[in-house]
Amino acid sequence: MSVGLSVYTANKILDAMFNNTSFAITNIYVKLHVGDPGAAGTDNPAAETLRKVGSFGVTGGGGVVSDTLITWSSITGAEDATHASLWDHLTAGNFICSGIITAAGYLAGDNWSIPIGGIVLQFPVAA
């Protein structure tokens, strides 16, 4: 399974920490998948190809949680989205990370949402 940070993101974080290089992402966009997105974030895409902007709260304890409802209107296809990938651009850009989502399936034409708190990103931290 290859969910987690992309190599791009890991390198950007390390450069920011150890090489005094700036790293900032203006917006995070969420893409749905029907299986593991893979190391490039492009495997198992959902029929619904539209990426939606996500919003995340203040970090704490090495993690961050989505703080808004992320909704697709009149969704394409009837599927069970099981994974999501995060990107730094609406249509192209860099793959940031991926993970597993827990949600009900949807039918073509449905309005479908990832609830507030439905995306949790957590780094393992020393305790």
Can you describe what's shown?
Helix content is 9%, strand content 27%. It has one helix at residues 7-18, and strands at 4-5, 28-33, 52-54, 63-65, 70-72, 83-87, 95-100, 112-114, 120-122. It has one domain (4-122). It contains 1 helix and 9 strands, in the order βαββββββββ. The model has no long low-confidence stretch (mean pLDDT 94). It has a 5-stranded antiparallel beta sheet. The chain has a two-stranded antiparallel ribbon with strand order 4-9. It is mostly beta strands and 127 residues long. The chain is globular, with a radius of gyration of 15 Å. The longest helix has 12 residues, at 7-18.
Shape: globular
Poorly predicted parts: none
| SS summary, helix count | 1
Strand order of the largest sheet: 1-7-6-2-3
Measured distance between first and last alpha carbons:
26 Å
Structural class call reads mainly beta
Overall pLDDT level: 94
Task: Spell out the blueprint of helices and strands.
Blueprint: E1 4-5, H1 7-18, E2 28-33, E3 52-54, E4 63-65, E5 70-72, E6 83-87, E7 95-100, E8 112-114, E9 120-122
Antiparallel strand pairs: 1-7, 2-3, 2-6, 4-9, 5-8, 6-7
